[in-house]
Every structure is written in C-alpha cells, then in structure tokens.
Amino acid sequence: MAAQNHLQITIPKENQTPEKDFDYSQRAQWLRAAVLGANDGLVSVASLMMGVGAVQENVKTMIITGFAGLFAGACSMAIGEFVSVYSQLDIERAQMKRDKATRGQDREHEQLPNPFQAAVASSIAFSLGAIVPILAAAFIANHKLRLAVIVAAVSLALVAFGGMGAFLGRSPMMKSCARVLIGGWMAMAITFGLTKLIGSTGLEM
What we know:
The protein is mainly alpha-helical. It is about 75% helix and about 0% strand. It is built from 5 helices and no strands. The chain has helices at about 30-55, 60-100, 115-140, 145-170, 175-200. It is elongated and about 70 Å long.
C-alpha cells in the first residue's frame, strides 16, 4: 500500500493578531490622558504643598492649597485636552474630506478622537494623582513629619505611575520609574527651596 502523506494547513483566525505585531502606539492617546495626567496632578500639587510647607506650618493652609491646586489643575488639564483633541479632530475631518474628494475614499466610519472623553479622562486622572499628597498630609500634626510623609507617599505613587506607564506601553520598567521619580523629586525640591528663599527675605504681604 502506498504511503499516504498528510498535509496539514493551519489557517489563522480572521481577527487574530500576533502579539509582537501589535501596535502599542495606539494606546498613546489614553495613556497620555491617564497615566501622565495622574503624574502631573501628583507632582504639581505635591510641589505646591511643599512650597507652602516651606514657609507655613499650618496644616489647614497646606490642605486648602492642595485642594486649590487640584481644582485649578483639573480644569486646566480638561480645557487643554479638549482644545488639543478638538484641533486634532478638525484636522482629521478635513483630511477625510480631501481624501473623499480627490481619491473617492470614504473614511466616515473610522473611529475619531472624542474631545469630551479626553477632557474628562484627563481631569479625573489629574485629580486622582493630586489627591495623594493631600491625603498624606491631612492626618499628620507634626510639620516636619508631615513633609516627610508627603515625600514618601508621592515617591511611592511616582514609582507606581511610572511602572504602570512602562508596562502598558511596553517600555523599559526601570528607566521609566527612575525618570518619573527623579523628575518628581526635582520639582518638589526646587519649589521648596525657592519658596523658602523668597520667604526668608522677609517679604510683607
């Protein structure tokens, strides 16, 4: 009996995409609005509170300052993200019209960026980051201990945000965490030092 040769052909599934071919740059928009927004809120409000703490020991003053920074930053992030994404949306719509007029390509069913979603996501992310130093300082009566707790809590959050961004974006974990952590330390130290310097000059308000 003649030997039978069996040829097996594997047909890939229609929607199956190898992991190595996945375009992680598609995640850039929501990553920027989420992880980087939270990092901005964390560093901005923590630096603001450290600056006030350099010249004021009152915990109420630091907390109110933190909340003011949270509200102002969240509004600023939302408005900035809305304007930025809306500009991108206008450009893409104009390009779609040109493609349809010159090449007959109908791209109306393509997914377009949503300015409102981007604004809300950016504002929420900023607020989540900004609340960390506020909560860290809220229950500490001793001034020096309060500043130390803020730095410690912010440092842990910076590492977490840096690691999250590196994991989702498939970038080097250690380098990402180090960049975020060192940047946050520098912002807090510079704000603290300059505010302390200005306060030591004896300016009268």
